[in-house]
Amino acid sequence: MMDETMSKQQIIFEINKLRQQLAELEGLEEPEADSIRVRKELIVSGKILSKAFQHIPDPVTISTLTDGRYVEINPAYEELTGYTRAEAIGKTALELGVWADYEDRNRMLKVLFEEGRVSAMETKFKSKWGEIFTFLLSVEVIFLSGEPYLLHLCKDITGLKDIEEALRISEESFSKAFNSSPIPMCISTFADGILIDVNERFCRITHSQRERIIGHTLEETGILVSIDKQKEIIAILAEHGSITEMEVEFSTASGKSRLGLFSAELLNINGEECTLFLFADQTERKQLELEILRLDRLNLIGEMAASIAHEIRNPMTTVRGYLQVLRYNEKFAQEVESFDLMIEELDAANSIITEYIALASTKKVELKPTNLNTLIKNIHPLLQANATIQDKAVILILNKLPDLMLDEKEISQLVFNLVKNGLEAIPPGRSVKIRTYLAGKKVVLAVQDDGHGIDPKILPELGMPFRTTKEQSVGLGLPVCYGIASRHHAKIDIKSNDQGTTVFVLFSR
């Protein structure tokens, strides 16, 4: 009996307690009542829905449709924005300052009213501490206890956007580095070698136009590498994925041969395996190395000749003197021709020693203002006299020039040697042309013949001591010219084909 009485008392107590809670509920402000109603609706909808709302890792909120006041937020929203549930319930996102860009809010409302829902709209939210986040915002209209509410689901993509921005900056940096690089670069597909991009320097070195070579292979554009070298490159890339500074000789679209250090790296572009090629053009460097080597040889030979010339010339002078005396002795009247031959050979030997000495870069030069045209006109009678004997001619084509700092004797020797070579290269009845003109900041002396040209194989070796194609020559004429040019800070360039040869001497103004 006691147990039944206690049970009834407990029931009455619980009923009174519920009445009291109901009275308190009726006295709550509207947002709080909405919040409790929403919570009860979530609970009524099932424990699974309630747990999902509370434990979903992305921020989720429920707000009134009429004025957008929060009636429920999940813990993920609190954690990310920094606003507690107590701070957020009953407030709008605008009042909390959550919208980083007010235009995002207007855009969201426009889409919501026009389409009835918002799906994955990119927006920026601001936390309580001012930190900016990027979200994909989705909004749905839901009904709880017959009342319409807005369900906001936010997917934080801040990290992804940071990665995208870093990737964009990286791609932009690569693009700038690629296009402005002084090193020729190109990108092609690895499978078939089709060019998909080239930089400006690549076009300049290969004498190609970008729009004409994109979509073609290097072979199709005329930029050729030997077949064996191509196979070697493909094999190394397939095995190691990269190549570093392989020396490669290739020809340009205009047919010129170039020498370069070739590097390559496999990379993935939009899911396709591609190859990045880099060419460090070494053509000019190799030419410079050969020039330095040639000048070193010239200087060494010249210095050696200068050091022993005195010891050789003294006895030669003595012998020549005795030969001249004996030549006029009546006892040797029948040997005059022999004496003349010996004296001539001694003079030739002395001339060779003089040429040896002229090779030395340390030889002193006496530079003074001189007009190259005037110098050439002064020695032209001697040049023409030598040509006339051979039934040939020396023609002058001289343009107005400024004065240069020259050593007259040395430049005269240079012109004599070049004209002599030209005359030897042509048959009787032909002529050698001497031209002078301005080319930018250079004064150019050009000696041109219309002979059979120089063998391309020996063209790079011209200017080296003792390198000659003539039977009765020691091969010092052109090396002497190079030595003279070097002492005048000038450059010699030789162009030759089967139509003839032109030697250019370029003086700086």
Automatic annotation (TrEMBL):
<keyword id="KW-0902">Two-component regulatory system</keyword>
<dbReference type="Pfam" id="PF13188">
    <property type="entry name" value="PAS_8"/>
</dbReference>
<dbReference type="InterPro" id="IPR000014">
    <property type="entry name" value="PAS"/>
</dbReference>
<protein>
    <recommendedName>
        <fullName>histidine kinase</fullName>
        <ecNumber>2.7.13.3</ecNumber>
    </recommendedName>
</protein>
<feature type="domain" description="Histidine kinase">
    <location>
        <begin position="307"/>
        <end position="509"/>
    </location>
</feature>
<keyword id="KW-0547">Nucleotide-binding</keyword>
<dbReference type="InterPro" id="IPR003661">
    <property type="entry name" value="HisK_dim/P_dom"/>
</dbReference>
<dbReference type="InterPro" id="IPR005467">
    <property type="entry name" value="His_kinase_dom"/>
</dbReference>
<dbReference type="InterPro" id="IPR003594">
    <property type="entry name" value="HATPase_dom"/>
</dbReference>
<dbReference type="InterPro" id="IPR036097">
    <property type="entry name" value="HisK_dim/P_sf"/>
</dbReference>
<keyword id="KW-0418">Kinase</keyword>
<dbReference type="InterPro" id="IPR036890">
    <property type="entry name" value="HATPase_C_sf"/>
</dbReference>
<keyword id="KW-0067">ATP-binding</keyword>
<feature type="domain" description="PAS">
    <location>
        <begin position="67"/>
        <end position="94"/>
    </location>
</feature>
<dbReference type="InterPro" id="IPR035965">
    <property type="entry name" value="PAS-like_dom_sf"/>
</dbReference>
<keyword id="KW-0808">Transferase</keyword>
<dbReference type="Pfam" id="PF13426">
    <property type="entry name" value="PAS_9"/>
</dbReference>
<dbReference type="Pfam" id="PF02518">
    <property type="entry name" value="HATPase_c"/>
</dbReference>
<dbReference type="GO" id="GO:0005524">
    <property type="term" value="F:ATP binding"/>
</dbReference>
<dbReference type="Pfam" id="PF00512">
    <property type="entry name" value="HisKA"/>
</dbReference>
<dbReference type="GO" id="GO:0000155">
    <property type="term" value="F:phosphorelay sensor kinase activity"/>
</dbReference>
